């Protein structure tokens, strides 16, 4: 188990390094001059040269990359080309909002998907199982932002139960924080829960036909206890894989949902930075999102060995 952790950690470090190079080079080859964007079209050549030197973009790409990564390792992502403010503290604040949204959305998805997916598999020959499968298929077809708009129309505009948008930090007013988080979390969680329900159903349905489950039932265990004791653990391995993919999808999907609900998360920050061509800020945000996706895959890979003992000795 220790060897597996060390190997996966080494792969994670190399993956982060490779991702940082790709992100940096991609931003470097984009057309446009950050100094020109910051100063405007009427800037003099002398002022442009001075600003390029202040930004550090008059150096070689290799030196720029080493300087940027050295700062990132210390938590310093540089200063915005547009606002001249430090990027790191903004990333920390915005990341907190996004993590609340993604965490709540994932919790809703799991709470819905595990029981409904299991029941859909157990009752796959009944009308109730077919109905659950049909509803989950409908949920898969609805984009998260459209679900958000529909939820706002019903619960914020017509019923006036919840706010249509905005953000209140939990340390200021926890009730207002929860009220503002419900609709955006539901818009993410319902859609991802529908996707996960289908995978849970498929995995549990496959497990129901395995020999070890039939053996457990032949020894006297009733169907549901046999499934709980011997089936769900084995069915969880492919479901955990999908959970990892969905967490990555939620990080990306939060970009649009944050815009719909006016949440000050990483997604809103990314769109604002792209529109103002603040490339250094975009570079930092993309790196954070990529590292987040790699960390999710790392944790999922380690969870395999926890769920399935047969994998603990595998490489």
UniProtKB/TrEMBL annotation:
<dbReference type="Pfam" id="PF00528">
    <property type="entry name" value="BPD_transp_1"/>
</dbReference>
<keyword id="KW-1133">Transmembrane helix</keyword>
<comment type="similarity">
    <text>Belongs to the binding-protein-dependent transport system permease family.</text>
</comment>
<feature type="transmembrane region" description="Helical">
    <location>
        <begin position="12"/>
        <end position="30"/>
    </location>
</feature>
<feature type="transmembrane region" description="Helical">
    <location>
        <begin position="176"/>
        <end position="196"/>
    </location>
</feature>
<keyword id="KW-0813">Transport</keyword>
<keyword id="KW-0472">Membrane</keyword>
<feature type="transmembrane region" description="Helical">
    <location>
        <begin position="282"/>
        <end position="307"/>
    </location>
</feature>
<feature type="transmembrane region" description="Helical">
    <location>
        <begin position="99"/>
        <end position="123"/>
    </location>
</feature>
<keyword id="KW-1003">Cell membrane</keyword>
<keyword id="KW-0812">Transmembrane</keyword>
<feature type="domain" description="ABC transmembrane type-1">
    <location>
        <begin position="95"/>
        <end position="300"/>
    </location>
</feature>
<dbReference type="InterPro" id="IPR000515">
    <property type="entry name" value="MetI-like"/>
</dbReference>
<feature type="transmembrane region" description="Helical">
    <location>
        <begin position="135"/>
        <end position="156"/>
    </location>
</feature>
<dbReference type="InterPro" id="IPR035906">
    <property type="entry name" value="MetI-like_sf"/>
</dbReference>
<dbReference type="Pfam" id="PF19300">
    <property type="entry name" value="BPD_transp_1_N"/>
</dbReference>
<protein>
    <submittedName>
        <fullName>ABC transporter permease</fullName>
    </submittedName>
</protein>
<feature type="transmembrane region" description="Helical">
    <location>
        <begin position="235"/>
        <end position="262"/>
    </location>
</feature>
<dbReference type="InterPro" id="IPR045621">
    <property type="entry name" value="BPD_transp_1_N"/>
</dbReference>
